């Protein structure tokens, strides 16, 4: 598939300045970030496409090459034969003060040449199930996981003592090295991770014995977090810097994402902020009316008033007892579908009573056809 024009991807003109490029990128990155679109399998590809466009156009030399040659710039794709793989950009990175340094790793531009590369550990995703009761009212909860955390012995620096860490001489602590390659009249800059320090900018001369210079260890930990009232199924909660630390120390840990899955309820189904349920009632309750009190998931009983002369299939509404609205005040409603309860077995005495009742309020078989015709006429009049 042919690559799209970078200016078209960002929705800017070919004369756009740096401020316009940055504004366009931030808007599109926020809208298409995979964390914002967990159910969209194409979001990650769109996000990488947006990153690639901005990475090239925000670098003066690469933008000049692109304006002259398009995607057929001498030397091919500036990201190598593997193509653009993206960088690990969180929503915080998009709007942080160090935003430009995120892309400076590709071509050495976009920020101060002396600014050190921003290192982050891997993000971690954990799926956690909660009851519908917890989803409605919210509250504090916790879970236990076994994951990578900073080494207690060396406090995550990977060295036994603070003096055991020094700046890498090869990259001067930048974590990257720049190589110039001449292609015809052009000079192409290739930025790669420093081979001596693995891209960390640090050299460990006295490794910690507990973690063997890793700066991290796998350990069981208890994570406490808050469930917001009215949370939806599949929402991901973010805990900054609670993900994996970087191997070898330095930088900051990645983020921890907790995907909340809501378990099914015994009788309620959720529809946005509303709750739906089917309630079986006997024939006598439909004829005479009744009042039913049930335990509710908000912790308070809910009372459902069934009016006299109700019929199976009627719906009743209890206002303000559903889930909290995601935006604005108030809560949704509870919709109750009435269903006729028919016992599987009846005693002879009960059958006799029903036979006597049918003679009083039942419908004679020869009158049934007339009633069907009348019902059809009434429906046509109301259309």
> What is the helix content?
25-40%
Our count of helices gives 10
Q: How many domain regions?
A: 3
Unreliable spans: 108-116
Q: What is the percentage of strand-forming residues?
A: 25-35%
Mean of residue pLDDT? 82
Q: For this structure, what is the CATH class of the largest domain?
A: Mainly Beta
Strand order of the largest sheet: 10-11-15-14
Using DSSP, what is the number of strands?
15
What's the order of the H and E elements?
HHHHHHEHEEEEEEEEEEHEEEEHH
CATH homology superfamily of the largest domain = Heat shock protein DnaJ, cysteine-rich domain
- The coarse overall form would be elongated
- Can you summarize the main beta sheet? 4 strands, mixed
Structural class: alpha+beta
Q: If you consult CATH, what is the topology of the largest domain? A: Chaperone, DNAj Protein, Chain A
Distance between the termini: 53 Å
CATH architecture of the largest domain: Ribbon
Looking at how many chains there are and whether they match, the oligomeric state comes to single chain
Write the layout of secondary structure elements.
Blueprint: H1 6-10, H2 18-32, H3 43-57, H4 60-69, H5 91-95, H6 99-107, E1 124-130, H7 132-137, E2 139-150, E3 165-167, E4 176-183, E5 186-193, E6 202-204, E7 216-227, E8 236-239, E9 256-262, E10 269-271, E11 274-281, H8 283-288, E12 290-294, E13 302-306, E14 315-318, E15 334-340, H9 348-361, H10 368-382
Parallel strand pairs: 1-9, 11-15
Antiparallel strand pairs: 2-7, 3-6, 4-5, 8-9, 10-11, 12-13, 14-15
Helix pairs in contact: 2-3
């Amino acid at each position: 598939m042919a690559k799209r024009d970078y200016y078209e991807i960002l929705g800017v003109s070919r004369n756009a300045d740096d401020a316009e490029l940055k504004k366009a990128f931030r808007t599109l990155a926020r809208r298409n970030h995979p964390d914002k679109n967990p159910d969209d399998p194409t979001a990650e590809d769109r996000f990488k496409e947006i990153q690639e466009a901005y990475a090239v156009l925000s670098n003066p030399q690469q933008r000049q090459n692109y304006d002259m040659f398009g995607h057929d710039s001498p030397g091919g794709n500036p990201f190598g034969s593997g193509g653009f793989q993206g960088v690990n950009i969180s929503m915080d990175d998009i709007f942080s003060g160090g935003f430009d340094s995120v892309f400076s790793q590709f071509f050495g531009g976009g920020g101060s040449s002396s600014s050190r590369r921003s290192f982050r550990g891997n993000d971690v995703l954990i799926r956690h199930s909660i009851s519908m009761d917890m989803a409605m009212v919210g509250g504090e909860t916790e879970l236990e996981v076994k994951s990578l955390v900073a080494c207690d012995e060396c406090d995550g620096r990977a060295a036994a003592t603070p003096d055991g860490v020094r700046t890498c001489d090869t990259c001067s602590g930048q974590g990257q090295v720049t190589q110039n390659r001449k292609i015809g009249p052009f000079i192409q800059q290739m930025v790669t991770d420093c081979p001596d320090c693995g891209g960390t900018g640090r050299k460990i001369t006295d490794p910690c014995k507990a973690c063997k210079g890793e700066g991290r260890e796998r350990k069981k930990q208890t994570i406490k977090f808050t469930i917001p009232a009215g949370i939806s199924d599949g929402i991901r909660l973010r805990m900054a810097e609670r993900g994996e630390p970087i191997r070898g120390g330095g930088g900051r840990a990645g983020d921890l994402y907790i995907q909340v899955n809501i378990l099914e309820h015994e009788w309620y189904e959720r529809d946005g902020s509303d709750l739906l349920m089917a309630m079986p009632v006997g024939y006598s309750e439909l004829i005479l009316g009744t009042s039913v009190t049930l335990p509710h998931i908000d912790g308070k009983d809910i009372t459902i008033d069934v009016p006299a002369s109700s019929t199976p299939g009627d719906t009743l509404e209890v206002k303000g007892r559903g889930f909290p609205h995601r935006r604005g005040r108030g809560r949704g409603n509870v919709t109750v579908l009435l269903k006729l309860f028919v016992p599987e077995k009846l005693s002879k005495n009960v059958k006799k009573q029903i036979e006597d009742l049918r003679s009083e309020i039942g419908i004679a078989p020869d009158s049934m056809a007339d009633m069907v015709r009348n019902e059809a006429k009434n429906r046509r009049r109301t259309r």
